[in-house]
Amino acid sequence: MKKNLLTKLLATTLTLVLGAGVLTGCGQAAAQGGDQAVQSESAQADATQAQADAGDKVYRTLDEIKESGKINIGVFSDKNPFGYVDENGEYQGYDVYLAERIGKDLGVEINYVSTEAASRVEYLETGKVDIVLANFTVTEERAQKVDFALPYMNVALGVVSPEGKVIEDLSQIAADDQVIVISGTTAETYLEKNYPDIKLQKFDTYATAKTSFENGTGVAWANDNTEVIAYAIENPGYVVGIPSLGSQDTIAPAVSKGNSSLLDWLNNEIVSLGEEKFFHADYEATLIDTYGADYEETLVVEGGKVADEAAEAASSEDSAEAATEATSDAE
Length: 331
What we know:
The chain has helices at residues 2-54, 62-68, 94-106, 120-125, 140-143, 186-194, 206-214, 225-234, 260-275, 278-286, 288-291, 296-299, 307-330, and strands at 70-75, 78-79, 83-85, 91-92, 109-114, 131-132, 146-148, 153-162, 178-182, 199-203, 220-224, 238-251, 254-256. The chain is α/β, with parallel strands linked by helices. It has two domains: 62-152 and 252-303, Periplasmic binding protein-like II (D-Maltodextrin-Binding Protein, domain 2), CATH 3.40.190.10; 156-249, Periplasmic binding protein-like II (D-Maltodextrin-Binding Protein, domain 2). The protein is globular.
């Protein structure tokens, strides 16, 4: 009896000792695993910080684009006549006409990426596209985030409204009225800054803004004047009561901030295209049916020079020629 009791006590003691050993081993393994996880997270954080410190670029340089054989260009897919998809599923429009020439002169295939106004900056900041050609108005705020090339079109803001109640001045908008804008556009920024009391109804896409406006949810629609003029021409019953609001701006291609190689190429390309009056040809191929010939000289920018700069350049050339002729006569 005593022998059996002693045997049981020894067995119990041995079990406890072994159990303690197992628990100790598990605890050490768990601790080691935890340490490894912490070390892994720390390493990842260090790597992320190192990348940030190194200023890793999200964009592709000109050489990288050429080597890949393809360029990603962000365009609108629902803004006729600037960027839209036709009945055959092909991209068309004023911006697309330029994109096609860029692809040709670079010798690469074009991958069109459909973009909305609010995502133009984001797509460049994340490297989703190499260039944005989407009716992109140059502003100081945007220029802090992306790099704009030379302009190829003039633009201002405009306001379209139903012909039964035409808005010719923003003072006509009552306190309970709403003006429709598209998020991420200069119209949104301008009205919020200069007319904070006007209620804005914001939409992410051109199509939804158009539908809402036609359903009467807003008394007017503010957008680039090129777009509201086109809308009124194509949709009877609407009038552009305010054809020019705010300052005169320009539209230009944009690339990711710091992508100097692609930016320089674009600037040289735009200057070169100006010598052949490319953007007049672009207008006549894509915009003249909408705006007619009367708007051509007002809207088109050739060689990256807006009207004042072009006039100044022409004046300088005339002065130089006159000076040369005077020198020749004196001789």
